[in-house]
Design a protein that fits this description.
alpha/beta, inorganic pyrophosphatase (n-terminal core), Udp-n-acetylmuramoylalanyl-d-glutamate--2,6- Diaminopimelate Ligase, Chain: A, domain 1, Diaminopimelate Epimerase, Chain A, domain 1, six-stranded parallel β-sheet, five-stranded mixed β-sheet, 20 helices, about 20% strand
């Protein structure tokens, strides 16, 4: 938050940059986000880098976080701009008792078209606009409107620059009409009624007549002194006496401006927004409303400021760094609305487009954590033991303890160095880590499915590939029996053309593929040269979705399209 330094100068709030992995995050996605956010904070004082996650943490990753005493990253399900990212104008709230004239003066002074009406706790009770004030002045011809509005006498005194000679300033004019005593007393008796407010001049007879007709208030114009006799009579008749320096015409013109804003303000069905609302959601609402300004409330429902359609144009997009992915389908929701600053990845180039050039580092290694380790070394930033542990865990996970064909010499070298810094034994630690991640028997089919599921686009085809790994064939067999009914349901819900689910045995270095969707069996057979029976096939020596499965499937799809 913005504050002051030791010299008393105001410090500007640092811009927050979210570092996040893909949806349904694996260990590499989570650990790389944490490590890279740490690295960026060491390198750049201008921004605050925060590790985030776009999905739930699986059992394997949670084991790693617990082992190295690290908290889960903050959950980020949508990177779209929010109301709090807009320029919120801090228009102070006013009491519902202030006069129309006072409200107009405040609007002109602040150059605003709408005033919020709030209580002492900043709860919003209504809105008054310039249009409301214009209507109150131009369309109200009822001479009793001032009393109907229950106008406080203090408003009348303020509006007419007047003084109260007799009466209570805290009282209200809430009965009678407003009349002008332009005729002689004989005629006045025919139209002045009890409780009326009578605007008159310095004629003693007119003042006396109004009081004797039980007027509720007399307004004496041009600053004319009121005699002691009239004052005593007014007290006896419970008649308020006000003296103003204005003339009769000015008083008659201004008196309606003393009415409280509460009488004219809009208080039903107010359109308000929360600071946490997404701008894409409020934009449609604002376009359908004729209002110029909209109040913003905080999470406790208290008024904080105003926004208008114009503020949408200047909203600053939220800053984002992507790790371990570069495809829209795998990214946090509304990723295309964010300002992407960097992408660190080891996958194929996907469908993501950016508005401006970004730092994009993509290397053919087995793990994003390997790239981040290299950046640490290149920038000569010391790697703390707990960060080293996270990076090493990610490499072990993504390379399946160096068994995956995606594993490179760089992955092995990085893991060897990180192993020493973290103070762990790779083989032993990996066994514990995979065992923790393989505790799938107690999880629901939905939890297992979304543990590692990604969508891919190829031409006009949509393909979903999910994968779970285990060191136990018995466990995989048991999981398959529970997963088959759910997978069929998930395939239909996602609206995919095809879906492949991989049951990978780490120790055997093989995968059973479950196929769903028209031509999915034929695609797997064409890609791997195996026979699919009952929508399933064992594919030996295949464990990597990125390097073995996806490329083979895309190649088969390409050959299929060429045949047509």
């Amino acid at each position: 938050m913005a504050g002051e330094n030791l010299t008393g100068k105001k410090m500007e709030k640092k811009r927050t940059v979210c570092v996040t992995g893909h949806k349904n995050p694996d260990t590499d996605s989570i650990c790389s986000a944490i490590a890279y956010a740490y690295l960026k904070n060491q390198m750049d004082d201008g921004c605050s880098y925060v590790a985030t996650r776009a999905g739930q943490v699986n059992g394997e990753t949670q084991f790693v976080l617990d082992y190295f005493h690290m908290d889960q990253p903050l959950f980020l399900d949508n990177i779209g701009t929010r109301v709090k990212d807009m320029e919120i104008r801090e228009v102070p709230g006013v009491k519902n008792s202030i006069s129309i004239k006072n409200a107009w003066t405040l609007m002109r002074g602040q150059n605003v078209f709408t005033l919020p009406i709030t209580d002492e706790q900043n709860h919003l009770h209504g809105l008054i606009t310039i249009n409301d004030i214009a209507k109150s002045y131009m369309e109200e011809y009822d001479s009793a409107i001032v009393s109907v509005a229950k106008t406080p006498y203090r408003n009348i005194l303020e509006t007419l620059d007047a003084q109260m000679v007799v009466g209570d300033e805290e009282a209200f004019f809430d009965q009678g009409k407003v009349v002008i005593a332009a005729a002689n007393p004989d005629v006045m008796e025919n139209y002045i009624e009890e409780h009326d407010m009578v605007i008159l001049g310095n004629r003693y007879e007119s003042q006396l007549c109004a009081i004797e007709m039980n007027a509720g208030c007399i307004v004496v114009c041009l600053g004319t002194p009121v005699s002691k006799t009239i004052q005593h009579l007014a007290k006896d008749h419970n008649c308020t006496v006000i003296v103003t320096p204005l003339d009769t015409y000015a008083v008659a013109r201004l008196i309606n401006q003393s009415m409280p804003v509460e009488f004219f303000m809009k208080k039903e069905n107010l359109v308000t927004f929360r600071r946490s609302d997404y701008t894409e959601e409020i934009q449609e609402i604002m376009s359908k409303m004729r209002y110029r300004d909209f109040p913003v409330l905080d999470k406790k429902g208290r008024y904080t400021g105003m926004i208008s359609r114009r503020n949408l144009l200047g909203v600053r997009r939220r800053a984002l760094i992507l790790v371990d992915h570069n495809e829209v389908s795998q990214a946090v929701d509304n990723v295309q609305e964010a300002e992407i600053l960097e992408i660190i990845d080891h996958h194929r180039l996907g469908s993501l487009e950016t508005m401006a050039p970004v730092y994009f580092r993509n290397q053919p290694v087995g793990c994003t954590a390997t790239i981040i380790y290299q950046i640490f070394r290149e920038q000569q930033v010391e790697i703390p033991p707990e960060i080293a542990g996270l990076l090493c865990s990610a490499i072990l996970s993504d390379t399946l303890i160096f068994r995956s064909p995606t594993c490179t010499a760089m992955d092995r070298a990085a893991a060897a160095d990180l192993e020493k810094i973290a103070g762990i034994d790779c083989e032993k630690f990996a066994g514990e880590m995979f065992a923790a991640g393989s505790e799938l028997r107690n999880k629901s089919p939905e939890e297992i499915f979304y543990q590692d599921f990604k969508k891919f686009e190829y031409g006009d085809k949509s393909l979903g590939i999910g994968q779970i790994t285990s060191m136990s064939e018995d466990e995989l067999t048991a999981i398959k029996e529970r997963m088959v009914p759910f997978l069929e349901k998930a395939y239909k819900e996602h609206g995919l053309d095809m879906m492949i689910f991989m049951l990978t045995n780490i120790m055997e270095e093989s995968t059973e593929m479950l196929c769903y969707g028209e031509h999915s069996s034929e695609l797997v057979e064409a890609a791997f040269g195996v026979k699919v029976e009952n929508n399933a096939a064992i594919v030996p020596a295949v464990v990597s979705r990125k390097k073995q499965v996806f490329p083979a499937l895309m190649s088969a799809l390409s050959r299929e399209s060429e045949e047509y």
